Structure prediction request, 183 residues.
Amino acid sequence: MILDESNAIGTTFLRAQLLPEPARQEVSTLLRRYVEVRLEFYAAGNDQKKLREVGGQTQQLQNQLWANGVAVGQKDTRAITTGLFLQSLNEMIDLHAKRLNAQENHVPEITLILLYFVAFTATGLIGYGCGLSGVRNFFVTIISSILIAAVILVILDLDRPHKGLIIVSQQRMIDLRDNLKEP
Prediction:
């Protein structure tokens, strides 16, 4: 999603260069700020206050960009370049919404409960099996327990991309920010 969003922003920026002045300059400036705000969004992590603040800034920038596109479109209703710009801007806004939705969707609680139940049952069966045989295989017991715990931790880590061991790289967005800097 990060790649798709950064590509959509980049395409919108390129198409904005086809707009007449002064809209071209204003839209370019807004898009540069938009990339900064998107990076701030990821840096906010799980800070709900910061996420709300950055979300408001994102919405405001999207509204300003759309208003600029509409204003240019009203001046020349047959301009293909304005239509292309608005199309890419719409895709950029849609990808932002998809990214927000992906961040808010988590593994359902029932799935986590099932994972914990399976882990508890599996370790219980290992202990029961050792009790029946009268021989405790310490190595198998420890390795099985570690593997079960590792699977659960990886699932929880993937479910929360802002924190943990597995962190989603924002390098494409950083590269885009660097490419959009004014000459």
About this structure: The domain at 2-105+168-179 is CATH 1.20.120 (Four Helix Bundle (Hemerythrin (Met), subunit A)). The radius of gyration is 25 Å.
